[in-house]
Amino acid sequence: MLNKSSLFTVIIFTLIGSAETIVAAEQLNNVVVISIDALHPEALALSKIPNITKLMRAGAYTLDGRSTDPPKTLIAHTAMFTGLSPGESGKVDNDWIPGEITVEHETIFDNAKAKKFKTGYFFSKERLGYLVNKAIDVHELSQDGAIFSAESFIKTPGRHFVFLHISGLDQVGPEFGWLSPEYLEELSFIDDYLSVLIDTVISKQNYLLIVTSDHAGHGKIHGSDHQEDYRLPLIVCSDIIEVKRFQGISFSVTKLKPLLENLLEVGS
Ligand SMILES: [Zn+2]
User: CA-based Rg of the chain, rounded to a whole angstrom?
Assistant: First the structure.
């Protein structure tokens, strides 16, 4: 049994403890997930990409990420959004056109919405419209303007959760080859284009920035069962959440959803 004095001590310590917890766990303002379509992890060391390199150095990264089977754009993004394998989600084909049925499983946006974020989804391939659901406040298909639209959205007042899909490497890869000079130059171009967005998110503080991809390729081929086609990187960077535990981990696209749920819980 606690006497009156020790009970008082316990209460005081409890109050101090919870006060410290509140101070330590700051709230995330901006969560931005960038999926660079068809990004081979080895390109990160071969390309001139100062902005992405800055995130890799400040945060943590792994080159040991793996796509779905088959490693194709919409199938892999569905796994990222739902945390489910193609067999579990039922999305086993890589096609979608407007008017067709959209995703019915809970996605990363449902969790972000429940955590009171304003949600934005900016993508550059029509088929990714399959992943639009009611938890998304703003969505836009734009071949060339997705980065700029995401940037404008983040500049509006409030806390934002953004998924940004960037196309380019998925066209240069099949034409010139994965890791070809043209492919590496395209990645430099994308990095340069991301500069303002990344700087904006960092300057607003209390951020979580994730850069990943849906699959890679080999030669001029992708989507096959060649092991290079399954590869992808994961970069995690935050100014308020410890992320070093992600350094060098084995990652899979189906792990993105639980990873985000965990980090949003820490930063909410
Ligand atoms: Zn793709």
Answer: 20
Confirm whether 128 is domain-assigned.
yes
Q: What percent of the chain has pLDDT over 90?
A: 88
- Distinct helix (H) and strand (E) counts, the chain: 10, 8
**Residue 87 belongs to domain with CATH number:** 3.40.720.10
List, for residues 29-67, the tens digit of each pLDDT value.
999 999 999 999 999 999 999 999 999 999 999 999 999
* pTM passes above 0.85: yes
Question: From ligand 1's centre to the CA of 63, what distance in Å?
Answer: 17
Asked if the structure places residue 7 within a domain, the reply is no
Question: Which domain, by its residues, includes 234?
Answer: 27-266
216-231 tens-digit pLDDT: 999 999 999 999 999 9
Between the CA of 160 and the centroid of ligand 1 the distance, in Å, is 25
Task: Domain count for the chain, please give it.
Answer: 1
In the reported structure, the alpha carbon of residue 70 is separated from the centroid of ligand 1 by a whole-number distance in angstroms of 11
Other C-beta atoms lying within 10 Å of the C-beta of residue 45: 10
User: Does residue 78 lie in a domain region?
Assistant: yes
Distance 76 CA to ligand 1 centre (A): 8
Q: 140, 131, 214, 221: which is closest to 176 by C-alpha?
A: 221
